[in-house]
Amino acid sequence: MTLTDTGATTVRRLTTSKAIVEALAQEMERDPSVIYLGEDVGTYGGIFGSTTGLLERFGPQRVIDTPISETAFIGLGIGAAVEGMRPVVELMFADFMGVCLDQIYNHMAKIHFESGGNVRVPMVLTMAAGGGYSDGAQHSQCLWGSFAHLPGMKVVVPSTPADAKGLLTAAIRDDNPVVYVFHKGLMGLAWMAKNPRSLDEVPEGEYVVPLGKARVAREGRDVTVVTLSLSVHHSLDVAEKLAADGIDVEVVDLRSLVPLDAETILGSVAKTHRLVVVDEDYLSFGVSGEVVATVAEYDPSLLATPARRVAMPDVPVPYAHALEYALLPRHDRIERAVRAAMTS
Amino acid sequence: MTTQAPRTTPETRPDTRPDTNTEIVGQRSRSTEPLDPGTRVALYETMVLSRVYEAAILREYHADKGPGFDIGKGLVPGEMHLSAGQEPVAAGVCAHLTVDDAVTATHRPHHFAVAHGVDLRRMTAEIFGRETGLGRGRGGHMHLFDPATHFSCSGIIAEGYPPALGQAFAFQRRGSDRVAVAVTGEGAANQGAFHESLNLAARWGLPVVFVVEDNDWGISVPRRSSTAVASNAVRAAAYGIPGERVEDNDVEAVYEAAGRAVSRARSGRGPSLLEVHTLRLWGHFEGDAQAYRPDLEELPDRDPIPRYERALRADDLLDDETAERIRTAAEELVEDAVDFAKSSPVPDPATAADYVFTEETS
């Protein structure tokens, strides 16, 4: 494959999963030290389509099915990274962090610091997150806030196919450990309800989206919605609906939690003076509180009305469809929060 | 080190003998061929250097903890897990390694660091929390990382095994004959990370030598109370790899068994498990009164270094003069390292948040 620079790219539409595969293929082509490890990433192609076709193209030496031993194979990725490889390791569900968290937060994330900068761990830990399809409390969580809370790993959460490609490329090239969280509802899977924007334009060729830079997904004057992942699209839908009522919503897609782009958040709130944070992760002690605190610490007088948070309540994700959808941060809740921000 | 009169009850007395109805699979007797004299003296030298090192750290650690004992006080603060008594394991294993081979050690790492050739000055400076330390004072004695010798350790039980798999994986992929040695204690053999690692290394034929230091005690819990099998070496059978247990803390038996395991890994025949029945001569950590331990009075007689010294003297490989020269050389190296550490700058508090990410490296 010939790589072209960003200036020479053309656009065509890909699903998020195909955009991820394209980023992986291009980076594996470019750098022989890049390998992909995980459960069912070989013949199956990734449960959520993150590696479709890579085994055929790069062979079993570089696209590697692991046993169901997350502690062992994440640790293996760490050791290989320490020795100069660039492993991309897939944790099938973010929810599975519980069986391997020690390798992630005590080893992957701390070795560079504990070594006083003498040992680098250039590794990407990818994982699927999110609910909305009745997979219950152990397979529907987002948990990106939990990773972001623990120091030493970057955390990126793409919302579009183009960002999925560009952020993954940047993550693989980064010399730090990067946690890369993709939402199942955005992968464009044939067997799961998907957001219509799961299929979108993706630049061909080499495409890098820098980590730590938020994106203004929709410009608006009246209220800022800071959000990420699938919730970006729900927020955009609400923004379009409210435009008819004369409410001009700005939607900020964080893209990265670590580093957090405070500048873009503050710039938007300084313009609109109203803030709603939408997050599918749990409400308390997480992303939504962090965003509000970022504004409050900088200048609470930026806010003309109280900040609002629309997040997963502090409740395990229920199984029954009606219960799950009563708690997810969906359009109705976002719309109510935006209207409240406008009126109070 | 503080000691109290031991309580001796049947419940707390460790029975370190194998269960009579349990066969120790893989235990091998020593070969009848004696090791060559140079190797024997070198093993002794490594053990002496390690012991002299631990004695110096013990001295410095307790020098300024008072009045009473405040764990956070002094030039060497925090928990301190010293390896006295376990020198035969590190000496016997690392004699087969070069600095191109990897070692992942435990919360009790100094003997392996010494035996693997980690720079004593920078290691000691790290233990003293100085800017010249291996981790610029960010790691401490349980978190020593030395890229020059591919040495690291982890304070979390059994969790040093998985990264060793990755180092071995990288060595294998590059077509080298380098190996990774992963060390745990016997308590770690009941952790999931231990078993996941053995399975994965066995299935992928990774060049790893898994070492278990059985010092009888998981802090205060005797192995017999924690572990369903008399020898962890038998657990190797569950993963189809060779398992050996060395009894009696015998450095030459460790040397021979480790030689088989390292050679197997180097020649592409995959991992092995080696358990050594060793001895925790001092407490779990400094300040541990070891009231739970009934065998304190017997410990001096079980010290492996005087025992090995007697064996070498009996074979005319060591006399007073050589023994004195070896000890003096070790003391000079160690005191030089301690002086280096003490005279090194403490890290600037303004840099306390540095090194979280590569971009934040001063």
Q: What would your notes on this structure say?
A:
The complex is a heterodimer of chains A (344) and B (362). With 344 residues, chain A is α/β, with parallel strands linked by helices. Chain A has helices at residues 16-30, 54-58, 70-82, 101-108, 111-114, 144-149, 161-173, 230-243, 262-272, 287-298, 321-327, 331-343, and strands spanning 11-15, 34-38, 63-65, 86-93, 124-129, 154-156, 178-183, 199-203, 215-218, 223-227, 249-253, 256-258, 275-282, 308-312. In chain A, the strands form three sheets. Chain A has a seven-stranded mixed beta sheet with strand order 3-2-4-5-7-6-12, with helices on both faces. The longest helix of chain A is centred in the N-terminal third of the chain and has 15 residues, at 16-30. Chain B has one domain (37-342): 3-Layer(aba) Sandwich (Rossmann fold), CATH 3.40.50.970. Chain B is built from eleven helices and nine strands. Chain B has a seven-stranded mixed beta sheet, sandwiched between helices. In chain B, helix 1 (37-62) packs across helix 3, helix 2 (87-94) runs parallel beside helix 3 (110-116) and helix 4 (120-127) packs across helix 11 (320-343). The two termini of chain B are 39 Å apart. Chain A binds chain B through residues 61, 66-67, 69, 71-85, 87, 99, 102-103, 106-107, 110-120, 151-152, 154, 175-176, and chain B through 102, 104, 133-140, 143, 145, 147, 150, 152, 154, 156, 159, 161-171, 173, 180, 192-193, 196-197, 199-200, 203, 354-359, 361.
Any descriptors?
heterodimer; A: 344 residues; alpha/beta; Rossmann fold; 2 domains; five-stranded mixed beta sheet; 12 helices; 35% helix; disordered N terminus; B: 362 residues; two-stranded antiparallel ribbon
Low-confidence stretches of chain B: 1-25
Number of domains of chain A: 2
Shape of chain B: globular
**What level of helicity do the residues of chain B show?**
25-40%
Q: In what range is the share of β-strand residues of chain B?
A: 5-15%
CATH topology of the largest domain in chain A: Rossmann fold
| CATH architectural arrangement of chain B | 3-Layer(aba) Sandwich
Number of domains of chain B: 1
Task: For the largest sheet of chain A, list the strands in their spatial order.
Answer: 3-2-4-5-7-6-12
Q: How many E-type strands of chain B? A: 9
Radius of gyration of chain B: 20 Å
Strand count, sense and barrel status of the largest sheet of chain A are: 7 strands, mixed
Shape of chain A: globular
